[in-house]
UniProtKB/TrEMBL annotation:
Keyword terms: NAD, Transferase
Family affiliation: Belongs to the KptA/TPT1 family.
Organism whose genome encodes this protein: Vallitalea longa
GO molecular function, one term: tRNA 2'-phosphotransferase activity
Superkingdom to which the source organism belongs: Bacteria
Listed EC numbers: 2.7.1.-
Name used for this protein in its record: Probable RNA 2'-phosphotransferase
């Protein structure tokens, strides 16, 4: 994502504004994943909020006074990682929530294998306890090793990539939820289903 110069034509004038979609995406993620109450928002059980109310909340932040629905749509389309969606005049973050109330997800059958990138210092704990959601609502899993590696690099320059026997875990009662095309979620994964 990048800076975008937009030409806006209003009734009385024409203006050029610059929107940094990466910064907007971070703000939207923060509001919808971690701090809706700071914006005066109440998410429904599936994480949705009215998009017009959300825009009003964003505009109260000095930096985003000119943000419009088209900007949110462009931000979502410009993103290489699908983090948000707008449907029926509502917006939500697809995954990554740390708020207290659980965002409900629909159980879905995962692919045979999923991957999780993690710091080397966590391996001992994962072998003992499995993968736990920690400060997030769900364990985040990737459909490919490359994505898992990039996620793991956030906490370790040489992360360990774990292969999760997702299909086997699923048939043994572990719930999985699709986050987006590259991200899957689970409540927890026992070490029995993890290849170290």
């Amino acid at each position: 994502m990048q800076l975008m110069n937009l030409l806006r034509i209003t009734d009385n004038n024409t203006e050029v504004i610059t929107i940094n979609y990466q910064e907007l995406s971070k703000e939207v993620s923060y509001a919808l994943r971690h701090a809706p109450s700071e914006y005066g928002l109440i998410l429904d059980e599936n994480g949705w909020v009215d998009v017009q109310g959300f825009l009003e909340a964003l505009r109260k932040k000095n930096k985003w006074t000119l943000v419009k629905l088209d900007d949110l749509i462009c931000m979502i389309e410009a993103s290489d990682k699908k983090r948000h969606e707008i449907v029926n005049n509502k917006i939500r973050a697809l995954y990554g929530h740390s708020i207290v109330s659980q965002i409900k997800k629909e159980i879905a059958e995962p692919p045979e294998y999923l991957y999780h990138g993690t710091a080397r210092r966590f391996i001992k704990s994962i072998k003992e306890k499995g993968l736990l959601s920690q400060e997030r609502q769900y364990v985040h899993l990737s459909v490919d090793e490359e994505t898992a590696y990039e996620v793991g690099k956030r906490r370790d320059q040489k992360p360990v990539i774990l292969r999760i026997r997702a299909k086997l875990a699923f048939v043994n009662g572990v719930s999985f939820y699709k986050g987006n095309d590259k991200i899957w979620l689970s409540d927890s994964i026992k070490s029995d289903f993890i290849e170290f």
